[in-house]
Design brief:
Elements (H helix, E strand, L loop, with lengths): L21 H9 L2 H6 L17 H13 L15 H5 L9 H13 L3 H12 L4
Length: 129
Amino acid sequence: MLDPEYSSYNMRIRRRDVALSRLNKLKLIAKWGVAFQNFRACLANVKGRLNCGKCEKCVRTITELVALGILDKTKAFIENDISADQLSIFNINIRHREPFYMEMLPLLKERGQDDLVDTICKMIEGKAG
């Protein structure tokens, strides 16, 4: 509702594709080379890096990129993998995070990332961490 209020005479703000999931947005970004190499998911400003690679949002995005099989194709993160230990330190049962992780489960399973699948399932149940 507020987005149009950020518009000005010279620039109009419109929202598109609001129904797309985070995974589908990442798929779109991956098709746009410049954006995929330079996108920022992180809210921290870490010198010399686009993304810190350690906060929940970075770890979630890295996990999504692993689920999609495209983490190695971007320079937006210097990390080249994610471990169950890195993932398990976060509480994903707050701020409506569970759906983001649940959407990854089938893709991670297809890629043989059973350790991540098990960890996410435990985290959703509130048993990890």
